[in-house]
Amino acid sequence: MAYIDTNVIISYIDELDPNHAKAGELLKSIEGDKFVSRLTLIELASVYSRAGLKDPVALAIYSIKRINAKMVEADLNKAITQSLKLAPNLKLLTLDLLHISICHIAGIKTIRNIRQRNYI
Question: How far, in Å, CA of 115 to CA of 13, rounded?
Fold first, then answer.
């Protein structure tokens, strides 16, 4: 079971991305279920809209389905509270802290990303 970071999805979907092959290998290597959150959905829609793509929300939903990921539900207020607790020690960007907090709330112990860092 693993939480998939947005950068993996973008690299996998975009065949011209320099990390496309790496993202494909990473996704194939995951045993068990793959998870994302609504935060991932928002990030994907944001990236696609900035790229000028038509219907970025639909493309974001398609991208999540394409990697066969399930949507994990987490209370945003709880994720923010957890992020505030983690911030002093982890010193990460806001969205990374929120992703980690969502995983913590959902009981997901692994986050997979292109940089191969595991924070939890």
Answer: 17
Which residue in 48, 38, 41, 45 sits closest to 14, CA to CA? 48
Looking at the 3D structure of the chain, how many domains does it have? 1
Q: Where are the beta strands (DSSP E) in 17-118?
A: 34-36, 69-71, 111-112
Average pLDDT over residues 26-34: 94
Q: Is residue 105 part of a domain?
A: no
| Domain ranges, residue 38 | 2-72
Evaluate whether residue 84 is within a structural domain.
no
Kindly report, residue by residue over 80-94, the tens digit of the pLDDT: 999 999 999 999 999
Distance CA 72, CA 14 (A): 24
Q: Where are the beta strands (DSSP E) in 1-120?
A: 2-4, 34-36, 69-71, 111-112
Residue 77 exposed, middle or buried by CB count within 10 Å (0-12, 13-18, 19+): exposed
Give the sign of the dihedral formed by CA 75, CA 96, CA 54, CA 65: negative
